[in-house]
Write a structure and sequence with these properties.
single chain, 114 residues, mainly beta, Jelly Rolls, globular
Length: 114
């Protein structure tokens, strides 16, 4: 389990999309935020349940509250992530989550050369 020294709980000088991204009949939602340098993140909420996501870019998922089990494509063991931890998912991959309790997250998208 990878721990975050200190989760940054707010961001400055960003643009936030007014419209949310809605997945799995509303059980997973997020909003896109864009920084001055063009980089993006999503801030989201997952309700209890099981979900599978695909990636096109490398993703870093910071768990800001809650708890979930994660299985990254190609791995055999589920891992638990709680508030203050994060996991990485390679580009062009997928991952499954079992959300044990309502979970807030921040997903960073990493460019191929980043």
């Amino acid at each position: 389990m990878l721990l975050i020294n200190k989760i940054k709980m707010n961001f400055k000088n960003v643009t936030v999309d007014k419209k949310s991204n809605v997945y799995f009949d509303g059980k997973v939602t997020s909003r896109n935020i864009t920084f001055d340098d063009g980089s993006t993140k999503t801030l989201g909420l997952m309700l209890e349940g099981e979900y599978e996501f695909n990636t096109s870019q490398k993703e870093i998922m910071e768990i800001t509250s809650g708890e979930l089990n994660v299985l990254i494509n190609g791995e055999v063991d589920w891992k638990i992530y709680k508030e203050g931890t994060y996991f990485e998912v390679p580009a062009n991959s997928s991952f499954k989550v079992k959300v044990n309790k309502e979970t807030n997250y921040c997903c960073s998208y990493i460019e191929a050369n980043g």
